[in-house]
Structures are given as C-alpha cells and as structure tokens.
Amino acid sequence: MSFINDYCKQIIRPPRRTYQMQQLGPKLRLVQNVPIIREDFEFISRQLKLQASYFISESIHHRCLIYLHCNASCRLEGLQYVERLQAIGVNLCVFDFAGCGLSEGKYITMGTYESEDVKELMNYIECRFGKVDEFILWGRSMGAVTALMLSQDPRITTYIADSAFTQLRTVVEELGQQKFGCFSFMINGFIPFLRSKIINEAQFDIDHVSPLNCVNIQSNSKRFYFLAAKTDQLVHPRHSQILYDQCKSYKRLELCDGNHNTIRQVETLDQITKFINLLQIDSPLNSDYTNKCSKYFNEAQQCLNSYRICQLEQEEQLKEYVKQLERKSILKSYQQQQRDISDLEQYLE
Known about the structure:
Layout: H1 2-12, E1 28-31, E2 34-45, E3 48-56, E4 63-68, H2 82-86, E5 91-95, H3 114-129, E6 134-140, H4 142-148, E7 156-162, H5 168-180, H6 187-202, E8 223-229, H7 238-246, E9 250-256, H8 266-276, H9 287-292, H10 294-348
Helix pairs in contact: 1-6
C-alpha cells in the first residue's frame, strides 16, 4: 500500500513551492510609459487565507485576467505576463492556490475546490477594486482544469486552457500504464483504493474532476483557447483535442512544441494575446472602477513623478560630471602643451 500512499501524495500534496515577497518584483512598473502598481492582498475562501497580487493601471474599462498556476507552483508563475497584458489594457491578478505558495491549506484538489476559490476571488476583486467589465481565466495544467470547470460562470468571457486534462481518473490511469507497462492490468485493482484514500484525506472524488462535462456550453459570449504541447508525457495532447471537440462555443486549438513544463514560445503567446483582445468593450466609462481605484492611480502617478524627478536629477548629475571631465581634459592638455613649450625652449638654448 506504500505505492498508493506515494501516488496519493503526488496528486493531493505535491511539493509546496515557497518564495520571498521580494521575488514579486517592484511595486511600480512602467509599460509604454503607463504606470502599473501592484497591490498585494489576502482573501478568505473555505476559511483559508489565500494570498494574491493585483496589477492595476488607469483605464476607462476594467478588464481582469486571473492567472491560475499548475499544481506544484505558485503565483510567481504568472508574473511573466504582466507587461504583455497591460499593453492591451488588461489587469493581471495572480494568487497562490490553497496548499500552494504562501497560502494556507494542506491539500490541492485538482480543480474541485480551486474553482470555488476563484469565484471568491472574483467577488473580492469586484468588491474592492470595482465592477469588472470582463473576467478572463488563463490556466496551466491544474489551473487550466480549474478554469474550464468554471465554464458556466456568466462573468467569465475568455478561457485559456494550457495542458488541461479531460478527466482526472483518465490521467491517473494513463500515468499508471506508463509506470507499470506490461503490468498495467493492475491499475484497475489499485484505483478504488487510491480514490477512497483521496476522498478520506482531501474530501474530493477523482471521478468528479471532469472538465469534459463542463465545456459543452454553447454561448456567443464565451471563447475558449485550448493549448497543448506535442510531446507532453504527463497530459497527452489528445486531451486538449477531445476538449476542443466537445466545446460548442467559439474556440481555437493549438499544438505547440515542447512538453508539459516547457516555457511557451513567443509566437504562441502572441496568438494568445490576440485571442484575449478579440473582444472590444463598447460600454462607457467604468466609474465604479475609477472611483475605487483612484487612490492606486494617484499613488502610481506620484511614484512615476518621483521616478521622473530622480531621472532628471541623475541626468543633471551626469551632465555636470561630463563637464568636469571635459574641464580636466582641457586643463591636462593645456598643462602638457606648457611642458612641451618649456622643453622646446630648453632645447633651443
């Protein structure tokens, strides 16, 4: 039974990736001369304290993308997309799932309770930062499954699902077949024990984790981008193909180079960015957003002004330093000329 214990641990308690707050980077960033301020906060879901960060910039609309990391990761995973998203007017929110990063929690549930946490996060964002014109979910692996399990939520318009599986039980069976090889017939024997152990410890059923049953929604207001790596050995790309076939809304499928954990190529990210920006918001100024976030806009502008003042001071200091160097060079040249003249006069005498 030790094998079942180890396998169970891989699913519900992978290594927790911890980090220091300094790794989140500067509180203020500049994208195309637009100041972006990061606000770190804590919200409660399932009586657990979960840690999040929101990157805010001034805009007439409030478009929010929540990045959902994979199972053995944390919110640092989504930081690479801050500037890319802000360039198209989308605010990025990153957070640590329960049991991950700096958030509380003992177990992960492969999307079961994580989807409930995302709902609480969306409620918190609208309450604190203002009404959201468009919610977008971008998830990878477990995060992608979490996103797809929220396909029915009317507040969400766009889903980016990178390396999602169809059903958790199917993935468990496939990984078991890889491990046992010719003894794969043993899988059907141990899965009931594994399922029972996960139910007892983490209170969720692997048979109920099925985004395949969620994506068949037909809606003109929803868009799905399915992405999978061609050589993914953990979640085979056919899972994304099956999800794509089952989806009845506007959809795209891309099979990219790499494996389950490969950093996605710039060309792929460019396509995703364009997909996110397909929706053009015609609504007027979002006054709730501008009112609730005015203090952040002002803080960002003050930081930007201070930064520009420091730049000007540094430029003046640099100019003065250059002038001093020029004066020293001229003086040195003059002194050298005087010595040359003196040497010549002595020679002539």
